[in-house]
Amino acid sequence: MKKIKVLGSGCAKCSQTAEMIADISEEMGIDVIVKKDTDPQSLLKFHVMKTPAVIIDDELIHSGSVPTRDEVEGWLRD
Amino acid sequence: MFQIFTEFATWLVYGVFGLEADSALGGAVHFFVEDVSKIFVLLVMMIYFIALLRASLDVERVRDYLASKNRSVGYLLGSTFGAITPFCSCSSIPVFLGFTSAGIPLGITMAFLITSPLINEVAVLLLMSLLGWKFTLLYVVVGMTVGIVSGLLLDAMKAERWLQSFAAEALVRGRQMALSNDAAIPGRVLSFSERHAFAKTEAIEIFSRVWKWVVIGVGLGAALHGFVPEGWVETHLGQGQWWSVPVAVLIGIPLYSNATGIIPVMESLLANGLPIGTTLAFCMSTVAASFPEFVLLKQVMQWRLLAVLLVVLLTAFTLVGWIFNFAAPYL
């Protein structure tokens, strides 16, 4: 099961991103764990300068915007 | 060129709404409609064109560029990039950590972060259209100077001692890495359609973020314009009494607005006869020193550093106010 983290604090887009991933995975019937991570040390660890950033299984795959629906579906299918 | 917006407001407010031109309400509503329509049209156009130009500029490239530069020019560059890089306060922390972990000195990072909310394309545009280019130039120079001087002071105090420990460690590691390699991400040449796509997204995004600030700011400005008795401000604060500047700065702290919201208020305060220095001090304090921003920065700074930063900023704004009130007759 994929572990997805959305990095970033204090921005509406971060919550929006996390909710969106949770909703889409549910629609697709794929079990994932989606968590919001507001710890600034995580930003350092993944060298993120633009939030929201998406981490899947400890790998940075997106940063700087709310992802599109297509992008999210693509990540979930892999 | 801006005449059309005045005519539009006259037509709508006095014609369609049927308000009296010489009543307080009519004057205030006219002011509101004229400014909001003018600002909205200019905003969308200008954000688009500026975004076309700066499509290839982002915080990661700014970081690489700053990290490769000598400290002596770093403050000026940090402040300049703060002025031109698109940035919202919710990115303060990732940008702060990104700069810090690249070994960029705290003062240069802070020059960037302090200048950023004070000066941006929306602010410059509003200043130009409401207060003219001379005032705009003055504002930009003062804003950058505040950023640069605050950065220099923080470094002179070795303020990085008061970072949270993980941020301080990142800074040390970053310095060592910066010495061992200086690989920068090469810039990519963007096609026009990529620039257009970026500019369109930017225009929509920035507009949807700032339009309400414009409405609030102009609304306040209009209320001041129509309802504060003519001459009241002039009589009570018009001489640039020395204490009025620190008081204006203190009032500005709990108030929080971005530059977009405050500039129409500035216009109105100036028109009501508030001296230029007091106005600048009040508005810069409102924009750059805010509680939400400080709460965010607490994640990477100890209380001590936040307190120092607050004192530095408040002192800077007070000095700006005094200097301009003093110099105003000679400008």
Automatic annotation (TrEMBL), chain A:
Transmembrane residue ranges: none
SUPFAM superfamilies: Thioredoxin-like (SSF52833)
Top-level taxon: Bacteria
Pfam families xref list: Thioredoxin_3
Domain Thioredoxin-like fold residue range list: 3-76
Cross-referenced NCBIfam families: redox_disulf_2 (TIGR00412)
Protein name: Glutaredoxin
From TrEMBL, chain B:
Keyword entries, A-Z: Cell membrane, Membrane, Transmembrane, Transmembrane helix
Primary location class: membrane
Transmembrane segments: 12-32, 39-57, 77-99, 111-131, 137-154, 210-228, 240-257, 269-291, 303-328
Superkingdom of the organism of origin: Bacteria
Identification of the protein by name: Permease
Source species: Shewanella glacialipiscicola
Family, per entry: Belongs to the UPF0718 family.
Subcellular location: Cell membrane
Topology versus the membrane: Multi-pass membrane protein
The keyword Kinase appears for this protein: no
